[in-house]
Amino acid sequence: MLFSAIDDKQTVIRNSKTGVYRQAKLYERNSELYAGVGGGFIRLMEQGRTSSPNMLWDDIEVKYEVTTGIHRALKYVEKRAAH
């Protein structure tokens, strides 16, 4: 499955080496959340961790749950319109 952009949703990413914060677009792949960084993607995990050892996430604009797998990744919980 490919990465799918989550319309108008972003996260704040911090480089732990330089202390620089930046806003990054959110993506979904297999129900897990990723941030677009440079020309690639980093997986968002519990407690602000990511798949990149020098990058942390500080804030996020969507609802999520934590998966029970080894990575403890963030699972996107899509908001559904009430009927």
Q: Report, as a whole number of angstroms, the end-to-end distance.
A: 30 Å
Mean pLDDT over the full residue set: 91
**DSSP strand tally:** 7
Spell out the helices and strands N to C: EEEEEEE
Number of domains: 1
Quick recap:
The chain has 83 residues and is mostly beta strands. Helix content is 0%, strand content 52%.
Characteristic terms for this protein:
two-stranded antiparallel ribbon, single chain, 83 residues, five-stranded antiparallel beta sheet, mainly beta
Structure report:
The protein is an all-beta fold and 83 residues long. It has one domain (4-76). It has strands spanning 4-15, 21-29, 32-37, 40-43, 55-60, 64-66, 74-76. The protein has a five-stranded antiparallel beta sheet, with no helix packed on it. The chain has a two-stranded antiparallel ribbon with strand order 6-7. A hairpin with a 7-residue loop joins strand 6 and strand 7. The radius of gyration is 12 Å and the shape is globular. The mean pLDDT is 91.
Q: Helix and strand layout, with pairings?
A:
Layout: E1 4-15, E2 21-29, E3 32-37, E4 40-43, E5 55-60, E6 64-66, E7 74-76
Antiparallel strand pairs: 1-2, 1-5, 2-3, 3-4, 6-7
